[in-house]
Amino acid sequence: MSAGLVASEGDVNLGSERARWQETSLGEAGRWLVERDAAVFVRQSLSSPCLAAIRRAEGIWIEDADGRRYMDFHGNSAHHVGYAHPHVIAAIHRQLDALSFAPRRFTCEPAVALAERLLRLAPGGFGKVLFAPGGSEAIEIALKLARVATGRHRTLSFWDSFHGAGFGAASVGGEALFRAGRLGPLVPGDAHVPPFACFRCPFGFPSPSGAPELERCRMACAATAEYTLAREADIAALVAEPIRAVPYLPPPGFWPRVGAAARAAGALIVFDEIPTGLGKTGRLFACEHTGVTPDILVLGKALGGGVLPLAAVLARAERDVAPELALGHYTHEKNPVLAAAALATLDVIENEGLVENAAALGEYALARLQEIAASRRCIGEVRGQGLLIGVELVTADGAPAPQLAERVLYQALARGLSFKLTMQSVLTLSPPLIIRRDELDQALAILRQSLDAAVAEGDR
Q1: In 10 A of CB 284, how many CB atoms?
Q2: Positions of the chain with pLDDT under 70
Q3: Which of 319, 354, 417, 453 suits 103 as a labelling partner, its CA being 20 to 30 A distant?
Q4: How many CA atoms lie less than 13 Å away from 155 in the CB half-sphere?
């Protein structure tokens, strides 16, 4: 969500921590380009003005305009195979030489091959595909398809979720930044319920042990969704992240219970795996952790290999019920270059064992971070799945610690590590799946040093 090195929900304005980092870290080349950028781009939260400028991206690294290098544990969730992977770049070059564009009404070999391959890889039951230029558009295709397939128009989704920036996608999303009152009315028919978030349970059942206390809460989050689905008779689709990109993991049994409630209500299940799919969680598809296969599955971000924008909507064959409508109808919906990049990305994920690498290194990173947390009271919880990991920072009384999180972020940038802040005080670590263990150790050492430096700075 950011054109700069990092996007943070705390970076709505140019805060003192950020300004100080820019003052000490930007050289002449970087400052000049950031100032030019600010002069011509519309200002918006999370991206403009930018933090810095980059001139090179390769593997797990980005390099700014003044030559400073950063391990990128953010990457807008698009860099699963790293930046500028040779296999992806070569495939794009070959396709540009062979066939660079396919107008609508015509098909091409790469687009058909990509659709066939995604259907082979996905959990059972999917039979049809549509491509879109980005995740927001793909979510809106899914919403249209759900409306037509069910004859209903309403949706149920979760507060604090992000499903895209378009009006339809923002309507089912739950982030305030994309639903602010100044935008005016969004698409009608959206209903929201509190999300699963065991450490910050919206129902007041905190989990200081780090494990969901299901005996106490009786899975209130699932019960609320279940209750709403039973009483809202015109829900076309439940739209959700199977694993929240914050990250937050669903409590055990959450999705089987909510999925059953959706099926009983006649609502389709739409899983948004735009940031979490394609191996990030240690399984090729995040829904494989849940025990529930959705009716519609949306992929994006990493599908383009960290080079080109591409998203995909996978649907069960019986949901192919709108031949008379234009559900997507995008200029680049069967673009051969985009498809070639995605096919090459899938090659890399499979041939280099990146799903297995994410599972193994994710388990290792969580154990290391738990060791770091054991002696640091500022860490409330460490959680994650695969190489999607969150470190939640807290104050002495257990409240969120956004100021500390901002200090940690800029301390880490100064040491060469970039990551994202979410929910104000969660350090979200999402490295490329190609990362090696020694590189991961280097990043974790930087994080530990940055935490200690930020705490010491706050005590002064």
Answers
A1: 21
A2: 1-15, 207-211, 460
A3: 319
A4: 30
Residues in a beta bridge with 299? 312
Distance CA 223, CA 201 (A): 13
Task: Please tell me the predicted confidence (pLDDT) of residue 251.
Answer: 94
Report pLDDT digits (tens) over 305-348: 999 999 999 999 999 999 999 999 899 999 999 999 999 999 99
d(CA 453, CA 408): 8
Report the C-alpha gap between 275 and 77 in whole angstroms.
Answer: 5
Give the domain range for residue 385: 16-81+353-459
The Cα–Cα gap between 6 and 75 comes to 8
Q: How far apart are CA 181 and CA 176, in angstroms?
A: 9
Instruction: Let me know whether 212 and 330 are in one domain.
Output: yes
Nearest-5° angle of CA 359, CA 365, CA 368?
145
Q: Is residue 59 part of a domain?
A: yes
pLDDT value, residue 207: 66
Give 394-450 as a DSSP string: B-TTS-B-HHHHHHHHHHHHHHTEE-EEETTTEEEE---TT--HHHHHHHHHHHHHH
Do the strands 311-316 and 379-385 form a parallel or antiparallel pair, or are they unpaired? Answer: unpaired
Residue of 5, 15, 93, 116 lying closest to 55 (CA atoms): 5
Token pair of 444, please?
């974790």
Summary mean pLDDT of the chain: 93
> What strands lie across the sheet with 268-272, from one edge to the other?
126-132, 311-316, 296-299, 268-272, 235-240, 154-158, 190-193
Taking alpha carbons only, the member of 281, 309, 277, 279 closest to residue 296 is 277
Phi, psi of 393 (to 5 degrees): -95, 145
Those residues whose C-beta lies under 8 Å from the C-beta of residue 313, and which sit 6 or more positions away, are: 129, 130, 131, 132, 138, 141, 142, 145, 296, 297, 298, 328
> For the chain, how many structural domains are there in total?
2
Give pTM, 2 decimals: 0.94
Following DSSP, what letter does each residue of 328-361 receive, concatenated?
Answer: ---TTTT-HHHHHHHHHHHHHHHHTTHHHHHHHH
Tokens of 114: 């990509």
Residues 193 and 249 in one domain: yes
